[in-house]
Structures are given as structure tokens and as C-alpha cells.
Design a protein that fits this description.
By secondary structure, the protein is α/β, with parallel strands linked by helices. The chain has one domain (about 10-230): Undecaprenyl pyrophosphate synthetase, CATH 3.40.1180. The chain is about 45% helix and about 15% strand. The protein contains eight helices and six strands; from the N terminus they run E-H-H-E-H-H-E-H-E-H-H-E-E-H. The protein has helices spanning about 20-25, 30-50, 70-90, 90-95, 110-120, 135-155, 165-170, 215-230; strands spanning about 10-15, 55-60, 95-100, 125-135, 180-185, 205. Strands 3-4-2-1-5-6 form a six-stranded parallel beta sheet, sandwiched between helices. Helix 5 links the parallel strand 3 and strand 4. The longest helix has 22 residues, at about 30-50. It is globular and about 55 Å long. Bound molecules: farnesyl diphosphate.
């Protein structure tokens, strides 16, 4: 392990990018890349638990990903369903608390049920995985703003009540500390509408490895880079 335990971030977030390129390099369909990406997720989630990371948030499907071919979208949804079925069967053993960030209403009724079952049945466990599914950072802030406006209209709040803390409490991430570290593999250097509000002070680490190839050593490298940076939160 390349990093000191007391410097392990409490919350790591990952943009799981590069599945398509991984598949293309091998002459395989894009869905094969997503299947290998799902394995990389399992590996990484297990390793995060070993390290003592308390929250892992992964970008599994964005509000923009619906633009992909029907076949690719169906393939990703199938993988998520399969993963959740397995997780539900193994719940007692893994003791992972599942949360879903995003508008689940556009998912199939079967997948929604798996998400809610996983969320409800794991509520008392301690290591938390947040799946961002049909998630967009702007969409999250718009939905939170609308929910606050509704509460104002119903007399539960005054407009002047709004603070950063209060708006945070309307986000999917309420009760979750902001991620200290956000990792994007695959060489792309964009945030792609991921955790826009929560990433205000996050350290970004961009790695050249494609997500399906991501190994514990890559997480070590990202955490080491995070530890080397001097986090000042706007102070001196
Ligand atoms: C981005 O790579 C990846 C996605 C849009 C989907 C991520 C989904 C998974 C890893 C499978 C989900 C399942 C579980 C169980 C976590 P890309 O397709 O944009 O890659 P590219 O940029 O190389 O085309």
C-alpha cells in the first residue's frame, strides 16, 4: 500500500471512463467494455473498503448517456441489473450501503425496484457506495432548487432562509460529506457534469489508464497524488 492510512480520503468519487475505447482496441463491442468496467468497479470498491474509504461515488450513467445507441444503453442497464441482483443476494456478506444519485424514474420498473430494494435493505450498513444513475450535476441543482421553491410556496421556508447548507440538504448527496478526491481515468480532463456542487474543493486526479484496466495500484497512485497536494480551502 503506497499511502499512509491517516491520509486516506473519507470520500472518493470516480468517473468510470474509457470502456468504449478499451473495447475498440480489442475489436469487441462497446458492451464488452462496460462489462469489463463493471469488474473494475467491483475490484475498486473492494479495495476502497480495504483502505477504509467510507464513501465511494461512481458515475455509472449520466443524463446525457441516453443519446447512445439503444443497444448500448440496454447493455449498461442489463449490467447494472445483474450487479444489483448479485449484490442483493450477497448483502449480508458485503455489508455495503447502497445509495442512488439521479432521477430513477426513467429507468425500467424492474431496475427501479432493484435500486430501491438494495437501498432499503442496506440502510444499516456502514461503507457507502453512491451510484450516479441518470445523474447530472446541473439537473441535481435544478431539482433541488425546484424542491426548495415548492417548500417556499407551501410556507415551509422563506426565500431568505436559503443557505449553502440548506440547499445541500435538497441534493441527492444530503448527509454525505463532499468528496476530497475525484478520479477520472482514460486521459480525458473534463468534469462532465459530475458532482458540480459537491466538487467545489475536491482534488481532481486524471489518470491515463482506461477504466476497465484500473487496478488497486492506480488508486494508490491517485491517493498518493492527493496526499502530496496541499489543501487550503481558500485560506493561506
Ligand atoms: C464511460 O465510458 C462509461 C459509461 C458511460 C458507463 C459506465 C458503466 C459501467 C462501468 C457499468 C456499470 C455497472 C456497474 C455494476 C458499475 P465510455 O463508454 O464513455 O468510454 P469511451 O469514452 O472510451 O467511449
Amino acid at each position: 500500500m503506497a499511502v499512509k492510512e491517516n491520509n486516506i480520503p473519507r470520500h472518493i468519487a470516480i468517473i468510470m471512463d474509457g470502456n468504449g475505447r478499451w473495447a475498440k482496441k480489442r475489436g469487441l463491442p462497446r458492451t464488452a467494455g462496460h462489462a469489463a468496467g463493471a469488474e473494475a468497479f467491483r475490484r475498486t470498491a473492494n479495495y476502497c473498503r480495504t483502505l477504509g474509504v467510507e464513501y465511494l461515488t461512481v458515475y455509472a450513467f449520466s443524463t446525457e448517456n441516453w443519446k447512445r445507441s439503444e443497444e448500448e444503453v440496454a447493455g449498461i442497464m442489463r449490467l447494472l441489473g445483474k450487479y444489483l441482483e448479485e449484490a442483493l443476494a450477497d448483502m449480508e456478506k458485503n455489508r455495503v450501503r447502497f445509495k442512488f444519485f439521479g432521477d430513477l424514474s426513467r429507468l425500467s420498473p424492474q431496475l427501479q425496484k432493484l435500486c430501491y430494494d438494495a437501498q432499503n435493505r442496506s440502510a444499516d450498513y456502514d461503507v457507502q457506495v453512491n451510484f450516479c444513475l441518470n445523474y447530472g450535476g446541473r439537473d441535481e441543482i435544478v431539482k433541488a432548487s425546484a424542491a426548495f421553491a415548492r417548500d417556499v410556496a407551501e410556507g415551509k421556508h422563506q426565500p431568505e432562509d436559503l443557505t449553502e447548507e440548506l440547499l445541500s440538504s435538497y441534493l441527492y448527496s444530503k448527509d454525505v460529506p463532499d468528496p476530497e478526491l475525484i478520479i477520472r481515468p482514460s486521459g480525458e480532463k473534463r468534469t462532465s457534469n459530475f458532482l458540480l456542487w459537491q466538487s467545489a474543493y475536491s482534488e481532481y486526479v486524471f489518470l491515463n489508464v482506461l477504466w476497465p484496466d484500473f487496478q488497486p495500484k492506480d488508486l494508490d497512485e491517485a491517493i498518493s497524488e492527493y496526499c502530496r497536494r496541499n489543501r487550503r480551502f481558500g485560506g493561506v
